[in-house]
Amino acid sequence: MPVLSIFYGIIVRMYREQGGKHNMPHIHAEYSGEEIVVALDGTVLEGSFPKNKLKLLEAWIVIHHEDLEANWKLLSNGEQFFRIDPLK
C-alpha cells in the first residue's frame, strides 16, 4: 500500500480499492500498532487511534484534502500517486 506521508509516528497510506468494503475515498493510518481507516470527510470507518494522534491526523486531512482527493483519483485510475507533506 503506497505511503503518502509520515509524521509524528503516524504512517498514512492509501491504495486503490475498487469495489472495496468502504466504497468511499479514505486513508489507512497506523501508529504504534494501532490502525484506523478514515474517510476523507473525517469519518472514522474502522479502528481506533489515541485521541491526540487522531486529532493530528484529522488536522492533516483538512489541510491536505485536495491532495488526498487527487491521489484517490490517480490511484483509482491505476496511475502513480504523489507524496503529501507531513504535518509540521
Descriptive labels:
88 residues, alpha+beta, 28% strand, globular, DUF4160 domain-containing protein
Number of domains: 1
Topology order in helix (H) and strand (E) letters: EEEEEHH
Residue stretches low in confidence (pLDDT < 50, at least 5 long) are: none
- The amount of beta strand, in percent, is 25-35%
Oligomer: single chain
| Termini separation | 23 Å
Largest sheet: 5 strands, antiparallel
Chain-averaged pLDDT: 92
- Principal-axis shape equals globular
- Strand-pairing-aware structural class: alpha+beta
By DSSP, the count of extended strands is: 5
* Helix proportion range: 25-40%
Strand order of the largest sheet: 1-2-3-4-5
Number of helices: 2
Whole-angstrom Rg = 12 Å
Pfam families: DUF4160
Protein name: DUF4160 domain-containing protein
InterPro entries: DUF4160 (IPR025427)
Organism: Faecalibacterium langellae
Describe this structure in words.
- This protein is α+β, with helices and mostly antiparallel strands.
- It has one domain (3-76).
- It is 28% helix and 28% strand.
- The chain is built from two helices and five strands.
- The protein has helices at 51-63, 65-76; strands spanning 3-7, 10-13, 26-31, 34-39, 44-47.
- Strands 1-2-3-4-5 form a five-stranded antiparallel sheet, with no helix packed on it.
- A hairpin with a 2-residue loop joins strand 1 and strand 2 (10-13).
- It is globular and about 35 Å long.
- The two termini are 23 Å apart.
